[in-house]
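dumping these here so i dont lose them again. two proteins, back to back, each one seq then structure tokens. dont judge the mess
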Amino acid sequence: MYYEFTSKPCLLYSPQAADLVIELSQTHKAKPDLTNLVFGTVFSDHMLTIEWTSNGGWQKPHIKPFGNLSLHPACSAMHYAVQLFEGMKAYRDADDKVRLFRPMLNMNRMANSAERACLPAFDRAELVECIRRLVQVDLEWVPKSDSASLYIRPTFLGTEPSLGVKKPSRALLYVILSPVGSYFSTGAKPVSLWADSKYIRAWRGGTGDCKMGGNYGASIYAQYEAVDYGCQQVLWLYGDDHQITEVGTMNMFLFWNNENGEEELATPPLDGIILPGITRQSILELTRKWGEFKVCERYLTMADLRCALKEGRVKEMFGSGTACVVSPVGRILYQGENLHIPCQDDFPQLASRLMKELTDIQVRYTLLVTDINSIAVKGYHPTHPACPPEYLVLN
């Protein structure tokens, strides 16, 4: 039994990594060709599952062979979208070390999403340790490549076997692993965006700051309309003034000379509409540490962008996220006009620098890890005095 004496509900019978049950697969799938890897289509040999009930609390975590789930037809996740997920990565460096990048930030965000979805609280450090053990079991699935990684997808479902719209009495938390290359089929090239107020991704008081499947499922229709207009992604707008919020499934950054003539890196603030991205936070921390230009969380509108482009004040625009890391924007279709964003040699200077420095942190573990308040822990254990860690060495 585990209790946490905070203002949050106690973590009764929270999943414990020490109770982990491991069942190894008797067969092993062939590893994929990394040169033709389509994002999220290939999965490793094992998965992690942890069940919860209101009466019994959290059950023992299990690592077992990858396989299908068995769910009741009235499962609340399928009827009322009582579910959420996370996205994180494991990287292999030149010395064959495998690391997770800032996993506790993902756990914090997952816990916030769970609270909003009325799903049970969990011990974040214990879940990180369970995930670490899963990656250790499937360590050979972490690509030996600078351009690929192992994507980790924690998923949390309400499995209430009832058609009543209510807080679930049963839940399932599971984690699957997928070796991935570039998120976009075009690789590391500037993306084109369709900006239209016709569809809205999120609104104040909603769940835009939570990583819930419903936010993404509802965006697919607009995504396909963007493709019909010859664009790859949607630039989500909000309000009558057409505030810029997110780029596809990414956070958005604008590097420009602002209205006052200051060189500035700007991104929309976390006001409940924007997802608090881990890569977003890392970019803000890195660039503030550099101290080379103003770094600001502020509202930006399409009128601001249009004016800045006409006056030649826009330097770069890019999205950020776990899947793509950094993705430059080359063109925006807005109100029938193609707005061309400066893109020197397909990967502009600041985006290129951020991609390199973040990759150095993720893959090569440079001293910059310290610069963003991250730490590496060998032989990590959830009770380590440095917990919660932001960077874990797995082997």
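---- next one ----
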Amino acid sequence: MTMAARLQGKRLLLPGLAIFVISIYVLSLLGYLSPKAPAWQPKYIREWNPDANITLEVDDFSRLPARRSPRYAISSSVMTSRFSQYAMMLAYTLQKHNDLAALDAELILLVRTEGKDAVTPQNITRLENVGWKIMVEHDLEFENVDKNQIRPYHRYNLNKLYLWSYTQYERIVFIDADTLCKGSIAELFQQPGEIAGAPDVWWDILTDTRFNSGVITFRPSIEEFHTMVKSVSDPRMHKPNDADQAFLNAYFKFRFHALPYKYNYNIIMYQHHRSTWDRLWNEAVIVHYTTKKPMPNKFCRKGCNEWEPSEWYSMQCREMLAFYGYESELPLLG
């Protein structure tokens, strides 16, 4: 064989060998030439299913990163059993108009399970079913404060202060249970400052200089929590028969900023400031039933001062009961 022929053969052989070696290397990386599974493939565990009498192959995702907790919380409170259905309504309408995953938020509900009229296990089961994460807390105690002097329907509202200790969240939006949501609340998580709330409304005052604590957005702080608990004992901050709203307004008097009306659309406007109610209804996000609570089988019909908002509530209630299959268990509210 001539030298030229040998050289030509080598030229053909070397590329082929290179391709073969590279192929072997790639296949070994992919696990085809190794009895050991490659690192990127999921492990499997064998799980026995006694009902089906078979063995199932189940992915083991234990090596995956733990799921991150939500950044924000949408909270409410139920201190008595009677308010549990209101909270169910709130959860339903919040999720109807908001994508919690997109908001990076979860629903948390502060409840009281001890004492007179406390939330029952059956209440909790239903509340969890509609999406609430239940946070059970004991009644807060304050030095030199007799809670029995606080108006009965507001007596447990100061337990709301617990929410400032939930520092696992960057920001918390608190919404009273006697409300309904009819739009996006995303903007509430982007508010600046320590706390924000919408102006309160009265029969003779359309825009109060104080905020209504039924809808607030705030930054949790354990230091602030401890300071607030101590401040309740200060007579300059808390009067004997006052609850959370008067205290929060005194405590944050020079630090809060106002939210638009639409985030706390007070039903008192329907009767006493009707032109404003009608003008702003389409942009309202949270409707607050302050002066007239929805009641079972006592619908406020035409001629009643708040008949239209009550009828609207009953429509949402009927929808919620059907969605969760509670039509035969719970009353229609309106």
